[in-house]
Amino acid sequence: MSLIPGLGIVRGMALTLRRFFQPKVTHLYPELPAEISPKFRGRLQLLYDEHGTLKCETCFQCAQACPIECIDMGGVDTKGRYAVHWGASETYGERREESALRRAGRTVPDVAYEHWSPIDLGPVDAILHEADHDPSRLLEILGATQAAYGYLPVAALKRISFGTGAWYAMIYGTATYYDHLRFEPPARLAGSDKAATPALGSGRQRLEVDYLAGLEQAIGSGSKGPAGRVR
Amino acid sequence: MTTTRTPFDIPAHASSDDPRVTLDEQLGVFEPIPPYPPRTEREAEFYTLRDGEMFVNMGPQHPSTHGVLRVVLKIDGEKVVDLDPVLGYLHRGVEKLCENADYHQAICYMDPLEYISSLFCEWSPVMAFEKLLDVQVPRRAEYIRVLSGELNRIASHALFMGWFALDLGGLTPILWSFIERDEIVEMLAALTGQRMLFNYFRIGGVNGDLNHEFMSRLGAWMSKATAHIDSNQALLNENEIFVRRARGLGVIDTATALQMCMTGPNLRATGVPFDIRRAHPYSIYPELDFDIPSRTEGDCLARYLLRMDEVRQSLRIIDQCLHQMPDGPVMAKLPRLIRPRPGRAYAAIEGPRGQYATYAISDGTDQPYRMRIHDPSFIHLQSVGLLTPGNLIADTMAIMASLDPIMGGVDK
Amino acid sequence: MTVVGRTWDRLTIPGKILAVVIPLGAALTAGLAILIAVVGGAVVQFLADNLPLVRFVVAATIVLLMTIPSAFLIIYMEMKVIALMNLRYGPDRVGPFGSALSVVHGLKVLMKEDFTPTGADVPVFTMAPVVVYMSSVLSLLVLPFAPGLFGQDFNIGLLYFFAMGGLTVVGLLMAGWSSFNKYSLLGGLRSAAQIVSYEIPLTLSVVGVILLAGTMSLNQIVLGQAGSLFDWYLWRQPLAFVVFFIAVTAEANRTPFDLTEADSEIVAGFATEYSGMRFGFFFFAEYVNVFIASGLTVALFLGGWNAPFNWPWPVTVGLDPGGLGIGLLLLLAIGPPLAIVVLGLPFYLLNSRIRFWQALVIGFVLFNVVAVGAVLGLAFLSFDWVVGLLWFMGKTYAFVFTFVWMRGTLPRVRIDQLMGFAWKWLLPAALLNLFVTALAILVLKR
Question: What is the dihedral sign for C-alpha A148, A153, A159, A160?
């Protein structure tokens, strides 16, 4: 503080007036691109090799190392390929429940193995007995199995293959040929019952359900197949 | 509004839908409702109003509480009679998070504690873990740590200047000091890869050597740093209004400061030249030539001027680091997965706000069994209750700003 | 119905607006014409009988309308000047050099929700911005902008001015009390203490000027400073000028005395609970007050609309447009297109990349620049109030710049320092000035 009162204020005001005419330091961002140093680590990105193939092998080492679980990956895209997600698993729907379970310390059910989960095979045995284990009456057997379970579980198909002596591929082919036979519970295909919708469907399946539901609405009830679904 | 009702008569859980609650109580602005009946005598005494007094809730959304601090002020006119700081709005449980992460990951959690001086938050746990592992850090890594740390100290002190002036009503200094801070932060981004939460120090060294971009930015800045910092301070140091407001305000004497466990610039402003860099030397500080500035007034002006003196000493240290920088590796050879032997370690460093310390216990696994973080902001904030009563409302902000707390570190 | 409805449905939105507005406008015009025909004579007679009333209403309306653009200008100035002092660019997106940003701010404020907090004293809460704004506008009424250009020339103009300025504190106190917020209350009480304290040195510092001029009419005070730079009261009353400037800064709630809305202490002071256009009124009133404070300083101490040197005006211009008769009409019809073509042709001829219509556009712009310049120059030379207004506005905005500059530099004082400064320093200084002035007048007159 100077001896003359007010001199400090006057000198400060002279300083601000000098700054008034000095060149400005603001970076005009949208016009001039920001300088990002080569070492900048703020952006996660996946690298591609010279053929344009994704280098990531989904080995999960990065996700393992990440302390706050901000890296996670998973999911299948509409063409059945692996799609790798970056970002917190809460941010994309198909892994949300799984993430919550994992954070709670519980085991995460894998929907891919749901079809192979053990089921009660008593009805299948009864049907096979009734049809006299005859592979030529396969359509009848399959229809009865579907009536019993609501759909065709993989374990039941294997049992049918074992009981009749027919190849599994043949049974599977027969089942896929007919429209009224299905491999998933009907609730999932209806797409309306949220409670019955499994937590994890592959991306393809969900898209297909949405697509068909939209298609049914658009076409109306005119051209439905025997199972009531759009062909 | 003459009512003899004390706020404790209102049920703490009463909502505005409750028919028992009258309109006055619904509005709930005449007396701040403590969360529950008083736990201590002090709380009961504080929440009882005498004639002419009223409560003002300062925060957690107040513009100048430096984060989410809530201070319940009991005022009589403009005069603060008493105050009750309420902490914990930013509590994240960093210590527990660190105990559930492995040693490398724990360092990452330390950065956001005091986001203005992130490198110092990393430094003390890294030093503690190195003591647990008994690692020898390469000398070049130590020099780089000191160099980047002192840069960060200058950035922190520059920002302090701006905030202090802003809380005293000056609009311009904060933008000028942000210019300095931005240049430092940009050059640290070139060195560490991040602008704010650097995550640069590793157990046994640093992540990456000095690079060309950092050195060129540093050189360009160092050539004009002294002139810039002096010129910025000229606006405040000689300003009568500023000096008259800061001088003699919030005076704390040496004995009280020591009783309050104050460290760093706030203690040095009371006349105790205690600096961990000299008192308990670590890293390469014993080899460097610098002074420990101290002042005897112990008021807000002394705390401000002392920090400005420290900036000059930091510039000296950076100069010496650049001249003495040895060659060699920047990282000690360590296994990827670290399992220290069971034991305990304590490491303290001198940060821009005082003593940052970490106490870590290892049980032989890859995660620390216990981690305790000592943060200077929390220690310094408790003296607000001692310094403020008797001053005016405007001085509350000035005193709080002069202690320079960061709420991220206070609430941990 | 069907035809009308279908046509209505096919209209675009501008079409719908026009289809409503045009008939409505026609109907209103017709109604107005009928009204004028019926009662026009009586109204004109009434107005002619009460000419001062008409003059007052017109002046008040003009002053009210003038405050908005001047407030916009000062807001823009504040944003830009402080930004440049902070080494920023400041507003630079809306309009040339960002100059339309303050207008956009005004529109934003208009569109925001007008919010009344629970527990507020609603009538008082609603009235407070009006009181604050009206006190500013009313005190603008006696400010002499130029010779012959002022709302009213009271013989107690200065007293009226301070009385109206003192009304501001009522509005601020109303806002502070009725907002049902402790920050607002503190802000209102601070403003009451501050403005009441600073009124005294403010008024006392002016008494010297009143003694010198021998009148309280602002117009007469300005006329008393006619002549050159050295006839201004600044040189005869330097101490009064300093005291007055400091006190008027405090009266206008400007930094370093902006305690009523100290954002780092009491959030936004009396305006904490205000939003929308009510906040906008406070905001505008603040900047109108800056203008008023600057204008009053200029009128009292810096010669008002007097030029700082003996300007040889009014220059007699020997051009009489009326003498041209029908030629004037022809000139107005032929002149502009000819001038546009003549001004645009060189661009077309000299630059092959400019098409003819582009050259015409350039010619049009150039013609407008030239014409406006010519008209302004003619007005400047012919009417003394134009040059007076220019000098007054120039000086006033120099002071506005000073206020903004102070805001960019200085921290805020504390309330006890503020009051102590007023009572311990400014009041004795003003009294000393008054005493010395009176003594000098007494001695020199003898």
Answer: positive
- Chain-chain contact of B172 with C82 (C-beta, under 8 angstroms): yes
Q: Which residue from C383, C215, C313 is spatially nearest to C224, judged by alpha carbons? A: C215
Say if residue B302 is exposed, middle or buried (CB neighbours under 10 Å; 0-12, 13-18, 19+). buried
Does some domain include residue B2?
no
Output phi, psi for C228, to 5 deg: -100, -170
**Single-letter amino acid, residue C393:** M
Domain total of chain C: 1
Task: Flag if C405 and A17 touch (Cβ within 8 Å).
Answer: yes
> Chain B residue with minimal CA distance to A15?
B235
Instruction: Cis check for the bond before C314: say yes or no (omega within 30 of 0).
Output: yes
Of B194, B239, B240, the CB nearest to A42: B194
Residue A224: per-residue pLDDT: 47
* Cβ contact A8–B208 (<8 Å): no
Structural domain harbouring B16: 7-86
Residue A123: give the domain boundaries: 115-177
CATH number of the domain where residue B204 is located: 1.10.645.10
Query: Do B163 and B20 share a structural domain?
Result: no
Give backbone dihedrals phi and psi of B349, rounded to 5 degrees, phi first: -130, 165
Q: Is the dihedral of CA C342, C343, C344, C350 positive or negative?
A: positive
Give the pLDDT score at A68: 65
Nearest one of A95, A59, A99 to A76, comparing CA atoms = A95
Flag whether C423 is in a domain: yes
Q: What is the mean pLDDT of each run of 10 residues along chain C (446 residues)?
A: 80 87 93 87 82 80 84 90 89 84 88 82 88 87 79 80 86 88 86 88 89 85 80 85 90 84 80 86 88 90 79 58 71 81 81 80 87 80 76 90 90 88 90 90 80
Q: List CB contacts (< 8 A) between C411 and chain B.
A: 165, 168-170, 236, 239, 241-242, 245
User: What digits encode the pLDDT tens for the residues A146-203?
Assistant: 888 888 888 888 888 888 888 887 888 888 788 788 777 765 444 444 443 443 444 4
Q: Which two tokens stand for residue C105?
A: 């701010």
> Does residue A133 lie within any of the structural domains?
yes
Of C352, C251, C243, C344, residue with least CA distance to C301: C243
Measure the CA–CA gap between C46 and C51, rounded to whole angstroms.
9
pLDDT digits (tens, 9 = 90+) for B29-82: 444 555 567 777 887 788 777 778 888 888 777 777 777 888 888 888 888 998
Q: Are residues A128 and A148 in the same domain?
A: yes
Best to test chain C binding among B31, B78, B247 (most C CBs inside 10 Å):
B78
- What is the model's pLDDT at position B3? 43
Query: In sequence order, which residues have a C-beta less than 8 Å from that of residue C392 and are 6 or more positions away?
Result: C144, C145, C146, C295, C298, C299, C304, C305
B104/B52 same-domain check: no
State the Cα–Cα distance between residues B144 and B123, nearest whole angstrom. Answer: 12
Shared domain for B58 and B109, answered yes or no, is: no
B313 neighbors B293 (Cβ within 8 angstroms): yes
> A-chain residues within 8 Å CB-CB of C406?
13
Would residue B1 count as lying in a domain?
no
Are B193 and B64 within one domain? no
Task: Select the residue from B239, B297, B336 to test the A interface by mutation, using most A Cβ atoms within 10 A.
Answer: B239
What is the total count of domains within chain A?
3
Closest C-alpha among B280, B100, B150, B283 to residue B205: B283
Total structural domains within chain B: 2
Query: Which of C84, C89, C264, C416 is the best mutation test for B, with the most CBs of B within 10 A?
Result: C264
3-state secondary structure of B58: strand
What gap in Å lies between CA B271 and CA B296, rounded to an integer?
A: 4
Residues 6 or more apart in contact with residue C154 via CB below 8 angstroms: C142, C160, C216, C217
- What tokens does A53 get? 């193939």
